[in-house]
Amino acid sequence: MAKLYANENFPLPVVEELRRLGHDVVTIQETGKAEQRTSDEEVLKFAIADDRAVLTLNRKHFVRLHRSSPDHAGIIVCTVDSQFGRQAVNIHAAVAATADPHGQLLQVHRPAI
Q1: Structural domain tally of the chain?
Q2: pLDDT-based confidence at 77, cuts 50/70/90?
Q3: Which residues have a Cβ under 8 Å from the Cβ of 38 and sit 6 or more positions away?
Q4: What are the φ/ψ torsions at residue 87 (nearest 5 degrees)?
């Protein structure tokens, strides 16, 4: 299973479901870096240092970071999905379909209604 780092705006219910699915997920809150105006660049640096893929809803900035700094453990950008269980399953499937997330940008979108 994947080692993931959820940034500040990522829904905790999705994190909890990913853990139930077997993923090793750490949140920015658990690292003591929450509510400190941590930049996206710093979030990525922390994830790289801990060999974790970033899990975020902040698609625009992290797609840009992926393009400028592709040497990372993975970036998973998601659209907002109020169906937390479905979102976790979709993330789980995207990770499972990737042999090695290092240097990869995975995009997980909410299904169209």
Answers
A1: 1
A2: very high
A3: 8, 28
A4: -65, -45
Q: Which two tokens stand for residue 38?
A: 């941590």
Strands (E), the chain: 3-6, 24-27, 53-56, 75-78, 105-108
Residue with tokens 């625009």, as numbered in its chain: 60
CATH number of residue 96's parent domain: 3.40.50
Query: Which tokens sit at 87?
Result: 């979102």
pLDDT of residue 113: 61
Report yes or no on whether pTM surpasses 0.85.
yes
Owning domain of residue 32? 3-108
Count of positions (residues) in the chain: 113
> Is 13 among the domain residues?
yes
